[in-house]
Amino acid sequence: MSVLVIKPKAFRKGCVGEVLSAIVVNSFGGLIGMKLVRKADCPDSAVWSDSCTSTETEEDECAIAVVVGFLLRKFELCIEEPDVKNIDFDSRVFRVGSDYVYRSKPGENLWQEIGIFFSYGFTLWTAPYCDDICGKMFEPSLVGLL
User: Fold this and answer.
1) Which of the residues 23, 31, 107, 115 has the least number of beta carbons within 10 Å of its own beta carbon?
2) DSSP secondary structure of 9-73
3) 3-state secondary structure of 78
4) Is the pTM above the cut of 0.85?
5) pLDDT at 68
6) Taking the CB of residue 118, how many other CB atoms lie within 10 A of it?
7) Residue 41 has what pLDDT?
């Protein structure tokens, strides 16, 4: 399971829908959660790196936090090429740079990452014998994007 955040650069380049569609197509079982987040709400997150800053005020910078159960290997997050965005649905190529998408680090506390972006009150349930998320977390205003 991973937390992915579509960074402000995708908003500025007008490709949020394309990146979100690539994530949805490559997530086994679909999205578990999605929420619009503002820098003012979580200023200390790693999402707001120097490479994605803009001339906008902090309150105006937005990102979309997404929780996926299993991200297929076809979706390649390129850290060594942070500015790359090569999404081609016909040839099944999904290469997106780290300037466009943040991904939670493996081995870190996933619940802590989720708590940064998703406030309490979202519909969610977990299996008591493991850490799997079995419910869904959606902000009502974003469900129409899917």
Assistant:
1) 107
2) HHHHTT-HHHHHHHHHHTEEEEEEEEEEEETTTSTTSTTS-GGG--SS-GGG-EEEEEEEEEE-T
3) strand
4) no
5) 86
6) 20
7) 83
